[in-house]
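Journal club side-thread
Mid-discussion, someone asked how the predicted structure for our own chain would compare to the paper's figures. Pasting it here so we can look after the session.
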Amino acid sequence: MRKLLVILALILFCAATVAEARELRRLNRIQTPDQSAALLPTGAVRIARVNPVPRAEVERFLDAFARDWNSGNQGGYVADDFVDRARLAENQDIRVPRDAVLKVQAVQGVQTLQQARLTADDGERRIVSTVSATVRTRIEFNDQTLGFVVLTGTNDFLMEFQEVDE
């Protein structure tokens, strides 16, 4: 009987320590500065209720981008504050074959990330929208050694749309 009590006491002692180890810990969020204001154009005020940019407008923009890329005029689409903008243009000139053709195969997802009101220098009020789109693309070109080459990929485009605020 004494053996049984000792074993029972050991089991209760082990169960008590295991039960304490399983208590829930409180998760505290790591405090970080709000950087969303840094993504807005200078002088812009965020709009609380976002009105999504129509998908058709995004698709028209992407088609125009592909058309201009195929004609060698893609530099106007890259933002002035894009990191290493000059290096991007230089790499495209060196690495992308002259006969390469970009085709937009599908626009998989379009999301308006943020909108802001902006008053331009001329006094015109605009709504500036930052839009993200996931796009399946295809590049075709002829290579001297490989022949006809097709490169497919899925790319994320981050675009800025501006419209007159009425």
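Post-session note: Residues 43-164 form one domain.
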